[in-house]
Amino acid sequence: MEYIIQIKGIEAAPQGSKKFVGRNIKGQPMMIDTCKRLKSWRDQVGIMAKLVCVDGIIEEPVSIEVTFWFKRPKSHYYANGQLRQYQPVYITSQKKGDLDKLCRSLNDGLTGSAFADDKQVVKMVAEKKYCDLESQTGATIKITTIDQNYEKN
Questions:
Q1: Are the beta carbons of 66 and 140 closer than 8 angstroms?
Q2: What order of strands is seen across the sheet that includes strand 62-71?
């Protein structure tokens, strides 16, 4: 089975960087995620996954292919709005998050809405790219179930 999920109009948020905010009454450290967009990103991923995965929660192993789309900086454009020549397609800026941290937040958003647990993800192909319109920010996700009894070579 194959499912295509489109997340539009919201920028992907990385998960993994934590900030120490103090200790609780038991003396244990309290940590929070440093990315303020994380909760809304994971919630949107979960909502869209439930709309697409209408057959219910996937129980089989899955393969995920994802493209994270980010808005280009203004410096990539001329004053008239035309894209400058030789601008990059892929993002290497530290401001947009590490690819592994983006995948971590994606998998957590899909857990419980597309598949039962992110341990079911046995293959993942991911990339970060620029899009030309802000409304196109988000992600294109393809989830494919894998038959454990048969695998193509």
A1: yes
A2: 2-8, 138-145, 62-71, 121-131
Residue type, 4: I
**What pTM does this model have?**
0.83
HSE-CB of 136 using CA atoms within 13 angstroms: 10
User: What does the angle CA 65 – CA 70 – CA 76 come to, to the nearest 5 degrees?
Assistant: 135
pLDDT digit of tens for each residue in the chain (153 aa)?
899 999 999 989 888 767 777 888 888 887 767 677 889 999 999 999 999 998 889 999 999 999 999 988 888 888 998 888 888 888 887 677 789 999 999 999 999 999 999 999 999 999 999 987 766 899 999 999 998 765 555
Q: Give which of 18, 19, 14, 4 is closest to 107, Cα–Cα.
A: 14
